[in-house]
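Discussion board: Methods & Data

I've been asked by a reviewer to show the raw model output for two of the constructs in my manuscript, not just the figures. I'm not sure how much to include, so I'm pasting the format here to get opinions. Each protein appears as its amino acid sequence followed by a line of discrete structure tokens. Is this the kind of thing reviewers expect to see in a supplement, or should I convert it first? Here is construct A:
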Amino acid sequence: MKPFPNTALSLLTLAVASALSVQASAGYGLKDANRSTIKQDAWVCKGCKSKTEISSSVTAGVALQDGEDSHIGNTTGTDTDGATAFLSADIHDRDENDYRLDFTADKLGFDAASANLTITKPGSYSVYLDYRALARFDSNAGRSPYREDGDNLRLPDNWQAAGTTAGMTELDNAATVTLEKKRQRFTLGGTVKGEGFDTELNFRHETRSGASRSTVNLLTNAAMIAKPIDDSTDTLDARVYWRGDGFWGGLNGQISKYKNDHQRLAFENAYYPTFGAAYNGQMAVDPDNQAFSLGGDLQFFEGAQQAVMHGRFVRMTQDEPLLPATVTGPAPTLPHLSADTQVDMMELGLSYRNRLSRELSVYGSYDYRDRDNKTEQAWYPLVTTDSIYRGEVQNTPYDRTRQLLKLGAKYRFSSNWNLDTNYSYDHNQYSGLSRDSVFENSVEAALRAQLMPGWRMSLMGEVRARRGDSYQTSELTQAANQNAMRQYFLADRDKRELKLMTDHHFNEVSIQFNLHTGVEDYPETELGLTEVRYTGYGLNAAYPLGDNLSLNGFFGQDWRDNRQTGSASGVSFWQAENRDDQTSASLGLKWQQLMDNKLTLGIDYGYSDGASDTEISQGLSVVYGPYSATRHNLSAWADYQLSDKISMRLDWLYEDYQDMDWGNDELMPDSIPNLILLGSLGHDYQAHYVGLSFSYQW
């Protein structure tokens, strides 16, 4: 190994200084030297300069996608059927005063993209601007006669109402609707650091657009719709923290406001009015609301001991005007013009950690969370399907108090063996539910070992037991539940889980294997979920086939079996079993340093298959139709260095995707007489994606 330049220079300087110190008294000191002919520029330490060079790359490209089903966009990041241009960048700049500029961007122009610009003076401040775009594509094959017009869903001018969907002559001409959710987030902020303190302030603006599946109805008739999404959330975050001798702490706060561009969703009745003048209906949408929070943290540390305290107060409010109880006739009087809701939350926590010896460390924590709904109770008119007045009902505030205690210890038997153990007690108190109090005890243990060089193993186990007080009729339901019915998140439960993970590295081969299995038993449940069993494993491996060729792969499977019982009379007389299984696999090959080290090739194949079926037994067994989804994905890429600064990349992707839902298979908008459907929303497609990009580096 070559010595570091600065190390060699230091040794030379030390030797010269030692020699000069002996001769300085004889007139050979530096002050007596003749420096007129010395080239002092050659003495400059080039490695000691502040780095001013720029390490940058900019990539511009265009992608061509051949796929009519928008679902392919969940893989590629864009649902455009055709060409889409994109821009990526990775720029880093440092000047002589150590000011830093960093800019990164990933596929700007796609529906899923990101960018970040940060300017920093290390140890002093930084300013940043961040952008994130996310998208989820459900279907672009839905069909609906309704078109969006602000807060209204309108039917075509030539719409012919009918008693059933079969008589709606214009339903065959229903327009295509797209079900998707797009999100864009902009964040502007900065930090200031000083002697013993840090501060940060940022503002975030997030918008959502698109449409989701929903249903509107009048009396016994209904229609599925593409419910429009147009909303935004503004959030302001601030924090200030101090550091001192043996402590660290500070305050943080947040203010957020949600705004929905829609105040309601009114719709025209596509059926013959069944009574009165029920030509229109309406449904509520998410109301504008706001939240405020203020919290603090304090940490003390001394030697191997560390104690942390935190607290937070949150207030959520909403005071939007209430909609009329119905628009199909005279609306009953409301007790208030607005809901004037308020929910307060309090969080308190304390944790302690200490290393008692080289072998033993201990940990403990306590968390308290209280949710208090302070909304005023009142009697509100109860209207069914925007048509039928059924008396009055009182709003019931929902409260919850949670206390969580954790105790843990870690013991090192040797440098290669250690054991982690943890105990937790989780106590929840509710208001208005079938059970007022639920508590759960759990014990977890993890044994980790280095069996031999290149071979690590972890064995983890968990046991949980949940119990609670007696069951009673919920105050949040209009009718009393059956006495034997148990809600799965409140019912007594015994859970056992075991995990095994191994990691092998030998002779340039890397193998990781994991296995997990568990069972959840609900011993006191007569009606409801009674048992859950699950098992799964995964194998990941990488192997170098040569100096420039590498291979990697993955294979995994998961199985889950849920059992439940049900009844309409209080005595169990039918059983249901839901079976889920999933298989996933991938294989990748990378070939580097081809054609005079200018070309790199890669190819990847991915496969996933998931299926679910339900069997109902009531004397005879009936198997519902299957739900399944299968995906094949093949991608290849080539990266070629055209010159020292310019490279070209070609990407190709092929996806074959098919899913099947027995409850939605081959449905048409008029398949059900009193329900207008969006049609079959399943996917069965083959799509291609080709991308060509050029990168410039300087």
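Construct B, same format:
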Amino acid sequence: MTSTFHSLETAKRSLFTQSIALNTTGHNIANANTDGYSRQTVKMSAARPLEAYGINRSVNPGQLGTGVEVNSIERIREQFLDEQFRNENKSLGAWNIQYDTLDKLQAIINEPSDTGISSLINKFWSAWSDLSKDPENITNRKIVKETTLALTDALNHTSKQLSDLNGDLTRNVEVNASSMNSMLSSIADLNNQITRIESLGDNANDLRDQRDLLTDQLSKLVNIEVTNLPEGYQISMGGQVLVAGSTPTPITGDLLQNAYAAGTLNNGEVFGMILSRDQYVADYQSQLDQFANSLVNGDIQVTLPKGTILPEGTVLDGVTYQGSTRALATDLTVTVKGINGLHKLGYNANDGTPVAGGDFFAAAGGGTLTAGNITLSQAIIDDPSLIATSLKTTGTGNSETVIKGNNGLALLMADLKDVKFTFGTGTTATSTIDDYFKAIVGQVGVQANEAKRQADNALVLTDQVNSNRLSVSGVSLDEEMSNMLMFQHAYSAAARFMTTFDEMLDKLINGTGTVGR
């Protein structure tokens, strides 16, 4: 049977429900600019009506409604769009890092410019050309010395910058491993909190938003797969579980390195860092080392002019020249080992017994010559007169002397600008020094442009998916204002209804039975 105060209960339920709806709308408005926030909505339904089927059911026709009640407060979120966003986000992270690395490589190589290695190479050849015009001029010899030191210093500095970039990328992998540990620990903690709260029947909407935001951030670092289990998110990377329930897996730089080597880490910023270091930076370091080594020791073919007097015991193409065979009766085309090999065929400018030129370049500290340790021979640094320029001597035995002013070797050195060097041991790859370096510059430019194109495309796709996601989950202030007015009017109407029924009860209680008094 219907209670006398039934309508008061109906009005009360309406007031409570509309109040909750208004509070939720206010919560949405307050978080309109909060990263990762998903708008929330109150799910309402009509309360159970009177009367239920039973033996004591009244004979009054129809069921009388009992008002409204809140079933739940739910967040609006589309899991499919979340998965799409994370798939695009990891590609964006990988390409951004690759482009950033290649952009730094372009800055390190610094070409084309008036101060880069290419310009110094041209000055090196020009210095030899000037020396060939006046081999005895000490100023020209010092210019060759200083130009060579400028070139080797530039190679040393560029090599160091590449090594520093390599180290930066390695350290960044470690830094990101630490960031991942923090994110995974927070996700595991949120899994535990969400499970405990929702076991009581409530939706942990704000905690779920925090967990999804952390998952989004994690997806930019590495390729992840997210599985929603009863105990919370299980996050994996290429089959390797990173967090399950409230248990995170500790991440180290070595673990990420091994995952990259095994192919389970194949996207994201960390992948981009390791790939950039092991492919781009290592490749350009290797090419720069090859450039320096080939300049010094790479096989080149030169034609020694008729009348050349080779130093005693010189071995060229398996032939040893000594005694009377030192003097070339005709032009001779031979293979020598780079600038060092050619320099040893000439004589320096000192008076007296002819002294064959020694190594022009050397490796600072010894060992294999690289771009990082190439330098001018210390003997030549100390005494530029030891730069060999002559190919001819006069006299024999103890009376043999260098023909002063001969520029045969200096001319051959200057002509090396157009001579093809062999790059790499046991290969047939040949190129001029200038063209080889230009190829390096061109390669990094092409790779940087491609990485930028891919990064731009990834950004467009990521933004598009995120825009679709925000259209579903984001807070629209216009919509919330409309809802606020709607709930406000409903609340006011419920309050008016309660006031009206209160007046009816007042009339019933205080006015009934007073007639005739």
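Answer (T.O., handling editor elsewhere):
This is acceptable in a supplement if you add a one-line summary per construct. For B, something like: The chain is about 55% helix and 15% strand.
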